[in-house]
Amino acid sequence: MRLPSSLTTRLALAYGLATAVILASVAAYLSGALSVQLEGRDESELVGEVLLVRHLLREVRSEAEIRADTHRFADIAMGHEGLILVVRSRQGEPLVTLNPRNESVPPLRVLPATMQPEKSLLQTWYPKNGVPSRGIAALGQLGDSDKAVEIVVLRDAGYRVALIREYRHQVLWATLCGAAVAAGLGFALARRGLRPLRRMAADAAAVTTSRLATRLDVGSAPAELRELAAALNDMLARLQDSFSRLSEFSADLAHDFRTPISNLIGQTQVTLAQSRGVAEYEALLESNLEEYERLARMIENMLFLARADHAQVALGIRTLDAREELDKMAEYFEAVAADRDVALAVNGTAMVQADQTLLRRAVTNLLDNALRHAPAGSTVRLDVERAAAPGGGTTCIRVTNAGPAIPPETLPHIFGRFYRADPSRRNSAASTRLGLAIVDTIMRLHGGSVTVRSLAGETMFSLQFPAEALATAAPPVPAPAAVS
Ligand SMILES: Nc1ncnc2c1ncn2[C@@H]1O[C@H](COP(=O)(O)OP(=O)(O)O)[C@@H](O)[C@H]1O
Ligand SMILES: [Mg+2]
């Protein structure tokens, strides 16, 4: 059997059922008690009748006198349903007979006239309806003579059984009606009780992307719903946060694409405004190429981040000699560094578990930044070190450069996409403003992390690679924030 899907209906049914069970048990108990009580009363009446008849017999002298005034005896049995009274002579000749249904009088043991009738002396007999009934037979003295007659008092219990049956019938109906009323009340109460839930649903339905700041009212919600409301509010807060990051991200994205493209359009328009020499066209194409490259880099970086967000970057993790990698990169950047009058120094040795291409990419991004921010005449340091730690230790690669520190308030944001601490460099052709976001993503893919420390005159980025190689398949990467 399937439960109804409505909570209100379920509660109403439960109320109805509980009430029916309670009422039925009470009714069963009461009808049992009533039956016992009626039986007890009947038995007392039987005893009482015998005493009454004996009392009347004391006032008559002969059997003939009894016959002459049977009414006196009949009266005492009047109004007692199912009561049978027979007074007969010891020879069996009936003197008084009150037996409207003509039951055949059973042979009962007859109590002597001197013996007091008692409930315990009652005997069982079966009337025509077959219901076990009680009765008593006793001798009664006539006047103060020693002559006696036989008194038989019987009570047909059929009436009692019918009474109880009728009573049960009524109680059954009352129980059913009670259960129906309880179910109805339960339905109304449950509907009322669930009103806050409907209100909450209506509030939740009103939330749209333009109204993500809407919150459910936790304070006025009943205690049972408060947890749900709070959880929904937390969810809304997270959604709102992600949504606003996403909006900012796409706005930034549009902006960052617009700059190189308007550069391209502007320069091209100016050059085309009049006819120019070959050298000028060459210069334009060269300048355009730079912008194309920047656009290509941005698109490539965006794609990389998007793929990493969806865990679609396959990692080929190998054990690499980190020192060898750093030496190679230092060599690669030699010319750029020399250009800026910056020295490069590599220190330390360690093995590292990493994807070679991604490791190079991360270090390249850091080196590129370091060289750009390092003042002329300074040294950019590349250090590698194995830090012993519980659980195998990590390999740490550090890129340190001198130069003005990154303001502490911007530090938490620099790993976000399109973030730049120094807005004056916004249009630099070399900058895609995704470099550190990519480093962060690469480190997450490796199960490691990147941290930065920027203090008076020195900025240091550290890459921590975990000792244990991760599975070669890309692990799910928690989507890095658009702007962290
Ligand atoms: N070594 C560094 N010294 C000072 N500031 C840095 C350094 N590296 C990064 N930053 C700051 O962090 C910002 C984000 O860096 P990045 O994501 O690589 O973007 P981009 O280099 O394209 O500007 C940079 O614009 C810069 O302001
Ligand atoms: Mg950079």
Explain what you see.
With 484 residues, this protein is an alpha+beta fold. The protein has 3 domains: 7-164; 223-306, Helix Hairpins; 313-466, Histidine kinase-like ATPase, C-terminal domain (Heat Shock Protein 90, 2-Layer Sandwich). The chain is 50% helix and 17% strand. It has helices spanning 7-58, 63-68, 70-77, 158-193, 195-205, 223-272, 278-309, 322-339, 356-373, 435-445, and strands at 83-88, 94-98, 110-111, 123-125, 133-141, 148-155, 317-321, 343-347, 351-355, 379-387, 394-402, 449-455, 458-466. The chain starts with 6 loop residues before the first helix and ends in an 18-residue tail after the last strand. Residues 470-484 have low confidence and may be disordered.
Which terms would index this structure?
single chain; 484 residues; alpha+beta; Helix Hairpins; Heat Shock Protein 90; six-stranded mixed β-sheet; five-stranded mixed β-sheet; 10 helices; 50% helix; 17% strand; rod-shaped; binds adenosine-5'-diphosphate; binds magnesium ion
Q: What structural category characterises the helix and strand content?
A: alpha+beta
Total strands: the figure is: 13
Rounded to the nearest angstrom, the radius of gyration is 53 Å
Ends apart, CA distance between termini: 53 Å
Helix content: 40-55%
Q: Total number of helical segments?
A: 10
Low-confidence stretches: 470-484
Query: Rough shape?
Result: rod-shaped
Bound compounds, please?
adenosine-5'-diphosphate, magnesium ion
- Listing every helix as H and every strand as E from the N terminus to the C terminus, the arrangement reads HHHEEEEEEHHHHEHEEHEEHEE
What is the number of domains? 3
Question: Please, what is the average pLDDT?
Answer: 88
Provide the β-strand percentage band.
15-25%
The biggest sheet amounts to: 6 strands, mixed
